[in-house]
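Protein modeling request. Please complete all fields; requests missing the sequence field cannot be processed.
Requester role: graduate student
Desired output: 3D structure, token encoding
Chains: 1
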Amino acid sequence: MKTHRDNKPFECTLCSNRFKRKGDLNVHMKTHTEEKTFECTICDDRFRLLRNMKEHLKTHTNKNPFKCTICSTQVTNKQSLNRHMKIHTGEKPYECSICYGKFSNLHHIKEHIKTHTSEKSFQCTICDKYFKTKVTLNQHEKLHTDDKT
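Delivered output (149 residues):
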């Protein structure tokens, strides 16, 4: 008798998710690491998955086929449009367990949580100072240039 387990023989050793193909398991394993091996050649952003980097590259092309019906903002994919729509609905499903601040998307809360820790993993390439978030690093790096925008 075949079971569901037979249909998905490859199991993640960290979370027990199961997969039909070993390649799918390998891609899944990257969700358990902070390693970002794929780098955008235009802006140096880094990504865990090649497909995410390819999707990101579209942001540099001005090809934005998904349009907001409320404010006419255009984005590259449906997921980004759904995330954008939360601006108009006020939906903030992610809550910080430390200060109870609410956030509209997972990326924002992950960045926010770093403000509650002493970890500083973003380093300025000019003066070697460390920062908690990429946003604060980018703000700091502008101090080294004439670009105050």
